[in-house]
Specification:
The protein is α/β, with parallel strands linked by helices. It is built from 3 helices and 5 strands; from the N terminus they run H-E-H-E-E-E-H-E.
C-alpha cells in the first residue's frame, strides 16, 4: 500500500529540518556524540573503549522487573534540579520529577537480585526530556542523555554492575552506551 503524497511531503519537510546536538564541551559526558568535527548527525559517533560486550542469553524466559528510573530510588540528590528550573523536582506531585536516577538503580541491584529478578527493563527514555517530563517519554534530543539520571559513565557503571550479577538489561541493547 503506497503512502498518500501529502504524508511523504510532510515526512520530507520534517526530515530535512531534523537535527541533533553536535558535540559541545558543555555536555561532555551526556552527549553520545563524541565526534567533535561532525556537522551532520549521520557522522556522529561514540564508543565504549576497552569494553567487552556481554553476550545476550539464548533464552530470555526469566523474571524481569520494570521500573521508571525517575520514580525508583534517588541515589544522587545533586542532580534533582540540574537544569535550575522552578518546579523541576517535587516528590509530592504526580507530574513532576521525583529524583530517581541511575545511581539509585545501582544501589537497588542487590535488592532486585534478592527478589530473584534476573532481568531489568527500564521504561521510558534515557535521553534529554523536558525539564519536568517525569514520564521519560518526551525526548527532545536522541543524542543527549537526560542529566537528571546521570552521565554516560554512570550508565556504563550500571550496565557493568547488572552483568556482574549475571543479570540482563532489556532496554539499552541497541543504543550506544
Amino acid at each position: 500500500m503506497a503512502l498518500p503524497g501529502w504524508v511523504l511531503q510532510l515526512f520530507i519537510i520534517f526530515a530535512a529540518g531534523t537535527e541533533a546536538l553536535k558535540f559541545e564541551q558543555e555536555y561532555l559526558g551526556y552527549n553520545l556524540n563524541e565526534n567533535e568535527s561532525a556537522t551532520d548527525p549521520l557522522d556522529y559517533s561514540g564508543e565504549w573503549a576497552n569494553h567487552t560486550f556481554f553476550p545476550s542469553p539464548e533464552n530470555w524466559r526469566f523474571p524481569f522487573y520494570t521500573l521508571f528510573v525517575d520514580k525508583w530510588v534517588n541515589g544522587d540528590p545533586s542532580n534533582d534540579d540540574i537544569n535550575g528550573t522552578l518546579f523541576e523536582h517535587d516528590v509530592m506531585q504526580t507530574q513532576l520529577r521525583h529524583g530517581g536516577d541511575i545511581q539509585g538503580v545501582i544501589d537497588s541491584l542487590d535488592y532486585l537480585q534478592g527478589m530473584g529478578i534476573k532481568g531489568l527493563y527500564i521504561a521510558g527514555s534515557p535521553f534529554n526530556n523536558m525539564p519536568w517530563g517525569a514520564d521519560a517519554y518526551s525526548p527532545l534530543d536522541l543524542t543527549l542523555l537526560d542529566k537528571h539520571f546521570g552521565d554516560i559513565n554512570k550508565y556504563r557503571e550500571m550496565v557493568t554492575e547488572i552483568h556482574n550479577r549475571n543479570s540482563e538489561l532489556g532496554k539499552y541493547e541497541r543504543e550506544k552506551i
